[in-house]
Amino acid sequence: MTGAPPFAKGDHRIAKIDLDDETILWRNADVEQERRVAIFDLIEENSFKPVRSAERGANGPYHLKLSVRDGRLMLAIADKDDEELETLLLGLARFRRPIREYFAICDSYYQAIRKATPSEIETIDMARRGIHDGAAELLIERLDGKVETDFLTARRLFTLICVLHIKG
To answer: How far is CA 5 from CA 8, 112, 148, 150, 153, in A?
Structure first.
């Protein structure tokens, strides 16, 4: 795995991921495509080590379910047999602005794909990547001490966190 933290033993990765469909109120074709790509890429290559579970002997791979409850991101982590290992709650207040900016730039990007010049699309896409990268760094920071992960995994998880925030 490129860019993955070196883990001593085990298969510390996400093998299955689910989003709480009750949280997702609305999605269009563009959003659905983003969700599918993020999940596919995440399952193909990721690095995910829940620290407390690993300290108790869990070696992965993991089943992760993401949902939003009472303004918090809930990460329900289970083993490959779907036995619950732990549930993490992260406050989402620090993510509100990156999520809002990401939605705005994605809207611009989707519109640009349909009618802008290649250079305009590239400019918007660079801004979109910048917001996405900053949010991934924030997620890594918020997971510190709870989950060891790499940048690409955090980036894909942020995409899925955004999908959970679509209100239609």
So the answer is: 10, 36, 8, 6, 11
